[in-house]
Amino acid sequence: MLLTRLAxxxxxxxxxxxxSRKIALLAELFRDxxxxxxxxxxxxxxxxxxxxxxxxxxxxxxxxxEPAAGPTLTVREVDAxxxxxxxxxxxxxxxxxxxxxxxxxxxxxxxxxxxxLGLLTGEVRQxxxxxxxxxxxxxxxxxxxxxxxxxxxxxxxxxxVARALLGEGPPTLERFRLTVGRPVLPMxxxxxxxVAEAVEKLGACAVEEKLDGIxxxxxxxxxxxRLYTRTLDDITDRLPELTSAALELRGERFILDGEVxxxxxxxxxxxxxxxxxxxxxxxxxxxxxxxVPVSPVFFxxxxxxxxxxxxxxxxxxxxxxxxxxxEPMRVRRALVNGPEDVAVxxxxxxxxxxxxxxxxxxKALDAAYSAGRRGASWLxxxxxxxxxxxxxxxxxxxxxxxxxxxNLHLGARTADGGFAMLGKTFKGMTDAMLDWQxxxxxxxxxxxxxWVVTVxxxxxxxxxxxxxxxxxxxxxxxxxxxxxxxxxREDKRPEDADTVExxxxxxPEVRT
Length: 512
Ligand code: AMP
What we know:
With about 500 residues, this protein is of the alpha+beta class.
């Protein structure tokens, strides 16, 4: 497929507000796409690079280049060139990347250049596109959209499903079953501002400890155990003690969902940094495991002995979990019948905080597992309110922070796929964080006016705040009060960040 076609459809999709028209435009595009175009076309439409971060900042984008007279570039050629570019490292790499970008731009028409610039700077991000693409694919191929959605959930990848569907047609969807060894995107939680609010919304529910560790999906098939993160990275080699724990369980074939966390001698959680450092380190695993041993704590069962449990109510999935996993390896919980029992939930939260954990996750007992989505049936409640926001820009520091990139501009996602700034903060950062972000943001920079460095909007940061106040300065009409950085969440995608809508839902007091 030619890039010019994609650029044109991308523009048309952005320009129309009617959902059905957007879907029709995408369906038309997919009808003309080859199976091998799909893994490129879909992320491009959403404004993502399939390669992830390839180190194209403003320094690399440099000066404008004379456009080509006519369109010749295919999306696959562009993708190959960008893959090449992402591989350039070492001394002189910036100049080499700039040369490669220049070459690509020289082959592009003016319209294509505009599209590529938007893509490379992260400006054409269209948050809702994946959901539209599912509908478009269904329309283009005659598959039922519910079947496409479920296949995407189980494959953990829209691109993979699109490729199969465009290549082989609807019968291929049968292939995407829940399978041991093939990770699925984990179910995510919404926030609630109090236990009472959560219990009121959910009715009969389980109140579980919220452990501040790293999400892990454990797959076992006989003696073979595989471990995956929430972004589906395989981390089996890093955590041998989890493999041993999984092999001790009674089942032979299962997929379990849980958290990996480091406890101290007294059974209290060690700091998140220690757990994250352990999970992140690939070298010298034996020494790392001695210094910071970690344990799995499971809270859900997705598949047991070949039986797919995803559509079962949580109460039944948990019964399967309890059959397989003995108590200390299962998350501590309390059962609540409904709002009349809210005191039980409050008491459990108080006990959880005393034990050193960050809060609770409250889960409806009748809800299915909605993989990859923030189902409304899991609600997290923490005493300190935090938000996952996107860094939009960062200001150069002064005084003690001269030479550093310090003050963050924070944004929440908006319904149209963009971001609305909610405030700034330079608080809560350790010196190590400051050094890390200074270096990191240089690689993400797309513009620099000497004071504010605008970055590709893709890094998620967890921010604690004391509340919201009305503001005429910021586009959503509200600003954060006393925002401070808790930590960077490289494990989250920009699509996982909080939305302006969810912020208003959590703070009805500021709604006008
Ligand atoms: P957050 O990352 O703040 O959105 O909170 C959701 C995360 O909490 C999940 O992705 C898990 O990694 C973690 N978590 C800890 N304990 C639980 C639990 N009992 N149930 C579900 N998620 C949990």
